[in-house]
Amino acid sequence: MSNMTIGATDAGGDERRVVALEAVHNFRDLGGYTMADGRATAWGRVFRADGLQRLTDDDLDVIDAIGIRTVIDLRTSGEIETRGTFPVEKLPVAWHHLSIIDATWHDTGVPDFPDDEQGGIDFLVWAYRDMLDQGADRFAHAFSLLSVPAAAPAVFHCAAGKDRTGLLAALILGGLGVDLDVIAADFGLTLDAMDRLRAWLGRADPSALEAMNGRPAMMFGAHPTAMRQILAELIDAHGSIRGYLASIGVGAATLEALATQLT
Q1: 7 — alpha (psi -120 to 50), left (phi > 0) or beta?
Q2: What domains does the chain contain, in order, with CATH numbers?
Q3: What letter does residue 71 receive in the DSSP assignment?
Q4: Which among 109, 171, 230, 248 would be 20 to 30 A from 65, CA to CA?
Q5: 94-97 and 70-73 as β-strands: parallel, antiparallel, unpaired?
Q6: Using alpha carbons only, how large is the chain's radius of gyration in Å?
Q7: Measured between alpha carbons, how far is residue 24 from residues 20, 21, 50, 241 in Å?
Q8: How far is CA 173 from the centre of its chain?
Q9: Are 185 and 101 in contact (CB under 8 A)?
Q10: Contact 42/118 with Cβ under 8 angstroms?
């Protein structure tokens, strides 16, 4: 069996992976992944998600039952001003804002890419290089927040839970030595979440669905190949994902503290 097959099974095969909510569609547990030292990330410790400002009261009951203590919002200030934040007034948590990019690509524009699968992959690689350039210090800050004792259970999120969230999740898992194909497969699970989001918007906010469908399809892709390429580039440049993290200020002690939080 190939590594990619193992990764796909490991990523999506457990019913605990996706947390079912009414208005948030990409809330996923990062548990169950084997690290380099043989330990596995524990379930219910760290989650990745999409726009938590949409949480309903019933959703908040689920979040409360999980015991979330820390929320890291990776969106821009403009997104927060327009759409709101996690409802801390209803469920008090330690809320942190770490804007990975200063403005969304929808606002700033992107280079032209072919409207096909390879174009979608090339767009993501371009976009993730941009995020790594702009947000290195904020990625490092996220590691520091997540490694603090008693930070977990924690969740980090952006708008769709795909790009900013996906790259931070990949760096976390990569820093802990999770197999790269498993990381890429976990990233690819967002494709199902995009389908869930579209179905929900069709019921709850048709105008938002129309706006979403009016944007380039490449902006909503989650190609595992793109994530695999970005991670390979970091390894080529720094020797390992841990080497890259060290270059942005995430040292071995922080990673060990994070591993403790996650196991």
Answers
A1: alpha
A2: 3-262 (3.90.190.10)
A3: E
A4: 171
A5: parallel
A6: 17
A7: 8, 6, 6, 30
A8: 11
A9: no
A10: no
220: which DSSP letter?
Answer: G
Exposure string for 119-145, b = 16+ CB within 10 A, e = fewer = bbbbbbbebbebbbeebbebbbbbbeb
Percentage above 70 pLDDT, the chain: 94
Supply the angle between the helices 206-213 and 190-204 in degrees, to the nearest 10. Answer: 130
Predicted local distance difference test score (pLDDT) of residue 4: 35
| Residue 210 in tokens | 């129309």
Question: What integer best gives the mean pLDDT of the chain?
Answer: 91
* Residue carrying the six token digits 């390429």: 229
User: Which residue blocks in 176-240 are alpha helix, DSSP H?
Assistant: 180-188, 190-204, 206-213, 224-238
The token duo for 227 is 């994530």
Separation between Cα atoms, residue 208 and residue 246, nearest integer Å: 41
- Cα(207)–Cα(40) distance, integer angstroms: 42
How many Å apart are CA 160 and CA 67, to the nearest integer?
Answer: 22
Which segment of 103-117, 202-216, 220-234 scores lowest on mean pLDDT? Answer: 103-117
Q: DSSP letters along 76-102, please? A: -HHHHHHH----TTTS--EEEE--SSS
Instruction: Tell me if 226 sits within 8 A of 121, measured CB to CB.
Output: yes
Mean pLDDT of 161-172: 97
Residue 27, sorted as left (phi over 0), alpha (psi -120 to 50) or beta, turns out to be beta
Instruction: Measure the CA–CA gap between 189 and 131, rounded to whole angstroms.
Output: 20
pTM of the model: 0.93
Q: What pLDDT does residue 9 have?
A: 41
Supply 74's token pair: 């990776």
